Automatic annotation (TrEMBL):
This is Lipoprotein. PROSITE patterns: PROKAR_LIPOPROTEIN (PS51257).
Amino acid sequence: MYRLIPFLFVILVSCQSSQTKPDEKSSTKKSLQSTKVALKYCETLAPPQKEVDTLFFSELQNFNPASYYLQVKDTSDFLRKIECIYSAQEYGDTLSIYPKNWDYGKILSFEQHKIYGSDQKFFMLFFEFFGGSSSSYPPQILCILNKSGKILLYQDHCDSLKYFSVFKNKNPFLLTAYVTGFGNGGHHLYMYHKGKIRDALTDDIDIPNTIDMHEDDNIYDPYFMNIDIRDLNKDGYNDLRFSSVLKMICTKKIPDRKIHFDFIFCPSEQIFRPIKTYPREYYHPDCE
């Protein structure tokens, strides 16, 4: 029985030209080397003792994930192969990983899409797994790969995702919601910038929770803040306003109040920054 680890789909697809460029040759060589490392690792993790296991390791050496795009027939087998290749790509020869305990996975969506900052299509993989611990809730993972199969993003605790247009005649951002097992969380607004997938909301800034359904001192109503697009500072660029109603949960009745967080778009940095420091969570002395 195999213990599955966090897995990602590696897609080795060229969507534009049949000619192989020098950097693509290098990438292909590296992928083959990674596969060999993955094969060695998998044999160490779960030595093949049955004929079916031996066949699996043999198939892994010639596995081409691109041929499975939108045509995955045996999800379990597909994920078993992908987990090994991802480990090699992510960790190289060291493979210092910590396997997660889950039983099997299910693909929720698997598509190609453009996002803000680039005209190339990326592979968007969104899947859930079953049998994990409560700390992994929600048991859903998003990963984004380029056409060469390089993993550009891996996000766990991904509750939902949608393509979110902010600027006219521009590709949409990828808006995702992340939630912890307690019910707190926030949003990511992914874009492509200087060869990487970047969150246009944070940039290492500690932003407030934009999701709160954890009944400690307060909750939001709705739990997931509404997001409005408007030019808040009148500079010709759209900005973002997150809004909801704050409900305090106390023995003493405290009136509900509307709250909002404003994020101004900075065109030179290509990022949305909060106009001030907002409290990450709200407290009230009567709720202590």
